[in-house]
Amino acid sequence: MEPVKERISACLADISMWMATHHLKLNLHNTELRFIPHRTSPLQALSITVDGTMVAASRSARNLGMVLDDQLDFMEHIRATARSCRFLLYNIRRI
């Protein structure tokens, strides 16, 4: 597991360095680590430290409005969309 952790950490450090070279900043507080394994993997509990900030693995992540989970079955996205629709319909009903 250590070689994988080191490779991912080095990759994130390279991305951070490239962004700094191009006058951009990688916001590590909003960075999420996602593993999409074929089967259950011990790497799902992996956490990586980059520039003194720990990036932990998460089960789901939002990207461009889509919620992607580790199973890629879109259930998290469907739940979030349904919750939002219920809230909006409740507000319309009150009007």
Produce a short descriptive summary:
With 95 residues, this protein is an alpha+beta fold. Helices cover 42% and strands 17% of the residues. The longest helix is centred in the first third of the chain and has 20 residues, at 2-21.
How would you describe this structure to a colleague?
- This protein is an alpha+beta fold.
- The protein folds into two domains: 1-58, no CATH class; 60-95.
- Helix content is 42%, strand content 17%.
- It has two helices and four strands.
- It has helices at 2-21, 75-94, and strands spanning 47-50, 53-56, 60-63, 66-69.
- A two-stranded antiparallel ribbon has the order 1-2. A two-stranded antiparallel ribbon has the order 3-4.
- A hairpin with a 2-residue loop joins β1 and β2.
The main pleated sheet reads as: 2 strands, antiparallel
- Tell me the overall shape: flat
Q: List the helices and strands in order.
A: HEEEEH
Integer average pLDDT: 82
Percent strand:
15-25%
Total of domains = 2
Radius of gyration: 18 Å
Strand arrangement in the largest pleated sheet: 1-2
- Termini Cα gap: 55 Å
